[in-house]
């Protein structure tokens, strides 16, 4: 808190300075008046002041030049604004609100409302929350234009920054940082720094959002901002993660070193971050991975077997590290994937199932750029799914699929049909789908694709038809097998009614013919005839070029075509004219007898053409081909020049090599580098040191998801409420099993996040019943049992006066001397007494409470189970008036409280007994344990074996009673006795420790019998254990309380198995 | 000063006639004139659908979507994943839809203040802040007729005076303290058949896409788990963020704490190995005579395998070739309309009864002198089958934990035609 003081001081001083400026315009004292009320008032402002201010400020506004506004002549507008001002000055909130609404509507329509600034800004402290919000909207919009006046509002936000409510702090910071006034940069900087260490993660998130705003206002603050970013990157909450990575990307994307320590954490938090943050983090991590790991595809053949199996699914961080080290030490050729690389791939994969297309795309590009070839395939399914989405999404996804399908064709082949085109698709989508289909074409599927293309050619959408024809051309060049089929199909199209179709076919045929001209003179002849009809310039030019190039294959037709073209030369398009000249030159060289005059004629026409390109060409060609005295050495080579073998054009996708842009990026879509594009680096040759990512507490990597985390994290000192709802606060930063010593520090660290605590408290009540919790509870109990037995075993504490049986074997059964009735209750049998924890000393703030079932009859009431409670005061203060209060027993349950303990000195331990009637059920008894200062909610849950008391019976009585409890009341279970539990006394000890039962004498030596009565209802419980040969045994429990019987069997079996 | 600014800079809403009727800037103001580049592209595209979603201008990039006759044009200054912006804009449109019942120009203009408040909350400095409908509704209450009357009398506001605690919670999609007197949970399993049927009636491509839309009105913090009889059917699934992914991976059970109200729980695709039963067939005879200005049109729709359920809500739309002037048809069932401007024929058939198959038959008048149309138009069919999920997907059970009351649970199945096209 100390650091706050100078900040406050500075904040208080600052506004006064800049506010001095209006002084000059508005005149001396009034400005003083103007500023001071704003600063002085704590909540709201006296209306007299605001009225005065408005009066004074109006001239100030009028001095501003009027900016032309949308509608209406200025005078009316002026008057209307006047009336808005009046409304804003009124002291009725409803009028203010109305005025603000109208002003916001003006802003929304793009009309200028800047002259209202002074009238609006003073309402910034208005109590009405909606007015306030709208004023914020106005401020953020106009503050940049009216910087001086905007400063008047700053103090309000500064006050907001100190508000005890986190949401108000956050919103104050949000607006403050949105006001683009350079003079408040230092204030913003301080506010951000302070907010970055706020208790509330929401405020810290807002601080992360404010960083790029400040950076854009003043980039000189970069170094300081990086410090804040570094601090926030270490934050462990999902709420902050997305926002701070966003800030990182905007301020210092080059500082990749800041990521090292946080890399694993980001990977593990990813699934719980909000969707927009996920996109940003994934994109950043893609870049990071490219700089830190080796290409997984460098040794493809080796990769398949070795690396994959070794690391897939290995969860243990230590093992991983060891392996990584081993790998880096070995530095042998076979590629071994860095476990961190694997971690990233594994943790992003589930996000392919996000509903957000941007997230899916981000993961897809990550896999495309980072995953081994064999694994990239998983993204295809998800991308195909996006094709069902809005057409804009389809457009972007298809662009990326088109690029991917060139590199990794196999990936999309199974989904070929998903790219089939519907007549209702928009043209731009159709063309992209066509691109993908063409990329996917191979020898096996080409016939299907061509059949599909045939349908497309008859479409009404002519642009699409043209694209289809080009696609056919590409298929024909890529797949030699179908070249002839395609060519025939295209030739058929030459007689199509639509000129565009014909023209496009001509162009494509031209390209195809160039590959094998000799066989196709028929087609060339056919095309020559088309010159009469086709008007599309590109097509005409193509035909002319074809004839010129292969004039030797069509010696008769060529001169005739030239004749026709010479005739129409002047009316042709430029591109056609150039080809006419070209044709003429070629004919002159091959067949000068027939074409000499025509060539001369064409060249003469061209000489006087309007287009200088054509004039130039004509002059150049004339010099080249017509031998004159002056013509130089080139003349000899004219024929070689013109009739050289020309390589056939390669028809390739416009998406080829687009993948040097990061997929999914704007630059990739536009195929040009967009402003601010971060180049995707190439894989390094040598992997940088992987140990930079090691963090002291490696638990992160173990908890890859909500579920796992839930299972693994045991936090005995908090309520385990976190589990169910998928924690935002990743509590696993704390050591997993906290020892008692470190407990205090961890509890204090938890207080650093106020909101989480609140959340936890809320949930504590509601989440009690959840299953997971019970599981955890069980685990905890088990551990406690162990501890307890250990403690008991050590025996040195002497805390258990009853503990004589703790280790010593149960005393052998002595038949009582007196004959007692069958239902005579026996004194309790002592097994190992287990203690259970009621209140841990951390949770109890130093007060620790344990309980055990003493197995003595509760003195006051025979239907109650006696619970011995041991309370130790580990604090250094006296605990007073310890008592039980507000027991909330379930129906029928009764609790007999122990007498109030007046005082318990520090370090003292006291033992008391309380009675609970559990109604023969294992439901927990809930009550409050109170001290003079605190209340603790505690509950006691009895094991089923404690719900009964032993009875004495003779063998005959036992058999008689057993005979009555057959059928449904009998539960039989087979047991296998472990080695150490085969001796008589071991068996007896285990059974009596599991349940409070008495032994019944038995004639047979391979049978053990026990009997008890439930405490509440007195129902008999009879246990028979019959040993068979070896380890096998049979356990029979007879009781009319079937539930108790079943549970008892389970408990005994468990006890015997140990 | 030179600096970079990422993400969404400004947003313009433009109607079909090219008026910019709303603008919002998250950073410094960008002049409306930037939209001229958009108008240029729009003119070039002829068709609204073909305006490229991403346009590059000298100083900015424009990323736009077209929804409900409105263009949402956002201005970007630097590299940003285009899908990020597109997805966000759609989320904005969804929110308007959610708040005002429709996402139209009038609705937006009537509620301009709420729209502005929403946009303010949804983006901070151009980066998405609160996009969950539940959080937004805590911050800004949606308008209702009653509230607007009350507000105008009392001057109270739409802005929630409670603080948006949802933003802080672990489960941002659900608000705290939900209370209902009747606790209900409804699930609509909606499956759509996408298909392309070729001329001869054989299926070129067919697949089933499904969604489960839920309407959950449960008090408190219920924890639901929904299981299917045959979860293996679901090949590719995308989830609402509330669903626990691991649980699905390991047990194929949807386990979640639901948002309050209406939301889409999952969308899925049924694995392509399964053959898709096409519930209708179409017999068609469309021909244009050479050198005469008329043609024949004869279409019959009949039910196929549909497991004893009635096919209803059948509508056929056909984009006729440009040369078609008018159509004189008679329908044995339902009614048809032909729009001579857009050349769209719509036939509203209704329910198909197998005894008497609906038929539409008659003469097509062509422009005289125009060449006969190359291609027969393809027929787009819509239909609906109640009480049937065509994939056979069945919900097994819904369990609720964490709350004590007994909710009313309901599941409804419906099959629809998705992009169902018959080539002729």
UniProtKB/TrEMBL annotation, chain A:
GO cellular component term, pick one: Golgi apparatus
Basic and acidic residues bias locations: 706-717, 778-789
GO biological process: intracellular protein transport; vesicle-mediated transport
Positions of the AP-3 complex subunit beta C-terminal domain: 804-923
Stretch list, region Disordered: 13-34, 706-824
Keyword Kinase found: no
Protein's membrane topology: Peripheral membrane protein
Compositional bias annotation for Low complexity: 740-754
Highest taxon listed in the record's lineage: Eukaryota
Residue ranges with Acidic residues bias: 755-777
Keyword presence, Membrane: yes
Subcellular location: Cytoplasmic vesicle, Clathrin-coated vesicle membrane; Golgi apparatus
Function: Subunit of non-clathrin- and clathrin-associated adaptor protein complex 3 (AP-3) that plays a role in protein sorting in the late-Golgi/trans-Golgi network (TGN) and/or endosomes. The AP complexes mediate both the recruitment of clathrin to membranes and the recognition of sorting signals within the cytosolic tails of transmembrane cargo molecules. AP-3 appears to be involved in the sorting of a subset of transmembrane proteins targeted to lysosomes and lysosome-related organelles.
Family membership: Belongs to the adaptor complexes large subunit family.
Protein name per Swiss-Prot or TrEMBL: AP-3 complex subunit beta
Chain's gene name: AP3B2
From TrEMBL, chain B:
Name of this chain's protein: Adaptor related protein complex 3 subunit mu 1
Topology with respect to the bilayer: Peripheral membrane protein
Example of a GO cellular component annotation carried by this entry: clathrin adaptor complex
Family: Belongs to the adaptor complexes medium subunit family.
Subcellular location(s) per record: Cytoplasmic vesicle membrane; Golgi apparatus
PROSITE patterns noted in UniProt: CLAT_ADAPTOR_M_1, CLAT_ADAPTOR_M_2, MHD
Keyword terms of this UniProt record: Cytoplasmic vesicle, Golgi apparatus, Membrane, Protein transport, Transport
Main localisation: membrane
The encoding gene: AP3M1
Superkingdom, natural source: Eukaryota
Organism of derivation: Athene cunicularia
Residues annotated as domain MHD: 182-423
SUPFAM superfamilies attached to this UniProt entry: Second domain of Mu2 adaptin subunit (ap50) of ap2 adaptor, SNARE-like
BP terms from Gene Ontology: intracellular protein transport; vesicle-mediated transport
Pfam families in alphabetical order: Adap_comp_sub, Clat_adaptor_s
PANTHER family: AP COMPLEX SUBUNIT MU
Matching InterPro entries: Adaptor_comp_med_subunit, AP2_Mu_C_sf, AP_mu_sigma_su, Clathrin_mu, Clathrin_mu_CS, Longin-like_dom_sf, MHD
